[in-house]
C-alpha cells in the first residue's frame, strides 16, 4: 500500500473504534470483547486489538496472555511479522491482535522515538481494509499506548457508569479527545456513549442518564448494559458472554448494541 509523504497510509475502508475511558472499572474491556463478538455474529469482519498491558481482552477471548510467542508489542517494536501475531478466534468469529505486559516494555522503548504516537496507526490503517470493524481496547489511563489508539482511531466509544464521579472522568476524556483532534487527528469523533452496569431502579443512575441525554443527544446509545452475573462470569471462562450464555441479559444487551450501531452506520453488507 502506498503511503503518504508523512509516512501515514491512506485512510482504510474499515472503521477503527477506540473503546476508551480514563476511569477504570467501567466495562471497557467487557464492551470491546462482547461488541466484537456480537458484530462478528452478524457476519461482519471484526478485528479486536488489545492495547492494554493487563491483557484482559486477550484472556477474555480465550487466549493465554502468558503463552504468547508474539503479540501486539512485538508488532509495535517491529520484532515480528503481522501473520505471526494475528490470531484467529474461530470459535467467536473475530480475529485478535493480543496484548500482555510486554506492551509496557514497548511503551518505554517507543517513548524517545520520533513519530511514536503514529506507530499503531501505521500498523492498523493498511490492515483495516480487510475488516468492517476494528475495536481497540485501551488502557484505563492517558498513556502513550492510549494516545496511539486514539490517533489510530476514527472514533471513540466511551463506556461509563451513571454515577457522579463518572461525569468528571468524562469531562477529562472529552478534553483529551479535543486536544488530540486539534494536534494529531482532526477527523477523530465520538462514536457514542454507552451506559454500563446500568440499573434503572437507581435514582442517581436515572438522573445522570438524563444529563447525558440532554448533553449528547443521539450520541448516547439507546441500549444500556445492565448489571448481569453471567456477563461478569464470562471472562473467567475465556468467552464472550454471547457464547457463555447467549440468553442472558448481558448477551442480549450487547446484541442490541450491535444492532443499534449497524442501524446508525450500516457500513458494508454482511459477508
Label this structure with key terms.
single chain, 271 residues, alpha/beta, eight-stranded mixed beta sheet, 12 helices, 8 strands, globular, disordered N terminus
Could you provide a short overview of the structure?
By secondary structure, the protein is α/β, with parallel strands linked by helices. It has helices at 28-41, 56-59, 72-76, 82-85, 102-110, 119-127, 144-152, 164-183, 203-216, 229-233, 241-244, 249-264, and strands spanning 15-19, 46-50, 87-89, 94-97, 133-137, 155-160, 189-198, 220-226.
Structure description:
The chain has an 8-stranded mixed β-sheet, sandwiched between helices. Helix 6 (119-127) packs parallel to helix 7. The chain has helices spanning 28-41, 56-59, 72-76, 82-85, 102-110, 119-127, 144-152, 164-183, 203-216, 229-233, 241-244, 249-264; strands at 15-19, 46-50, 87-89, 94-97, 133-137, 155-160, 189-198, 220-226. Strand 3 and strand 4 form a beta hairpin. The chain contains 12 helices and 8 strands. The two termini are 23 Å apart. The chain is α/β, with parallel strands linked by helices and 271 residues long.
Q: What percentage of residues falls in helices of 4 or more residues? A: 40-55%
- What order do the helices and strands follow? EHEHHHEEHHEHEHEHEHHH
Largest sheet: 8 strands, mixed
From the alpha-carbon coordinates, what is the Rg to the nearest angstrom?
18 Å
Please, what is the average pLDDT?
91
Low-confidence region ranges:
1-6
Strand tally:
8
- Overall 3D form: globular
Number of helices: 12
Oligomer: single chain
Strand order of the largest sheet: 3-4-2-5-1-6-7-8
Amino acid at each position: 500500500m502506498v503511503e503518504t509523504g508523512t509516512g501515514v497510509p491512506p485512510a482504510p475502508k474499515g472503521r477503527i473504534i477506540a473503546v476508551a475511558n480514563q476511569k477504570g472499572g467501567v466495562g471497557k474491556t467487557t464492551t470491546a470483547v462482547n461488541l466484537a463478538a456480537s458484530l462478528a455474529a452478524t457476519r461482519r469482519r471484526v478485528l479486536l486489538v488489545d492495547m492494554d498491558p493487563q491483557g484482559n481482552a486477550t484472556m477474555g477471548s480465550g487466549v493465554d496472555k502468558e503463552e504468547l510467542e508474539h503479540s501486539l508489542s512485538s508488532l509495535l517494536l517491529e520484532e515480528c511479522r503481522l501473520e505471526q501475531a494475528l490470531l484467529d478466534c474461530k470459535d467467536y468469529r473475530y480475529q485478535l491482535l493480543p496484548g500482555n505486559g510486554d506492551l509496557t516494555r514497548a511503551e518505554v522503548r517507543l517513548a524517545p522515538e520520533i513519530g511514536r504516537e503514529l506507530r499503531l496507526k501505521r500498523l492498523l490503517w493498511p490492515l483495516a481494509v480487510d475488516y468492517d470493524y476494528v475495536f481497540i481496547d485501551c488502557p484505563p489511563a492517558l498513556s502513550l499506548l492510549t494516545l496511539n489508539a486514539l490517533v489510530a482511531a476514527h472514533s471513540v466509544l466511551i463506556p461509563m457508569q451513571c454515577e457522579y464521579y463518572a461525569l468528571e472522568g468524562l469531562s477529562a476524556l472529552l478534553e483529551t479527545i479535543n486536544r488530540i483532534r486539534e494536534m494529531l487527528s482532526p477527523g477523530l469523533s465520538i462514536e457514542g456513549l454507552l451506559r454500563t452496569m446500568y440499573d434503572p431502579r437507581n435514582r442517581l443512575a436515572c438522573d445522570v442518564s438524563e444529563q447525558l441525554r440532554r448533553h449528547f443527544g443521539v450520541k448516547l446509545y439507546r441500549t444500556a448494559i445492565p448489571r448481569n452475573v453471567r456477563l461478569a462470569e464470562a471472562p473467567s471462562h475465556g468467552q464472550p458472554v454471547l457464547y457463555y450464555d447467549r440468553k442472558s441479559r448481558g448477551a442480549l444487551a450487547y446484541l442490541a448494541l450491535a444492532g443499534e450501531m449497524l442501524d446508525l452506520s450500516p457500513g458494508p453488507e454482511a459477508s
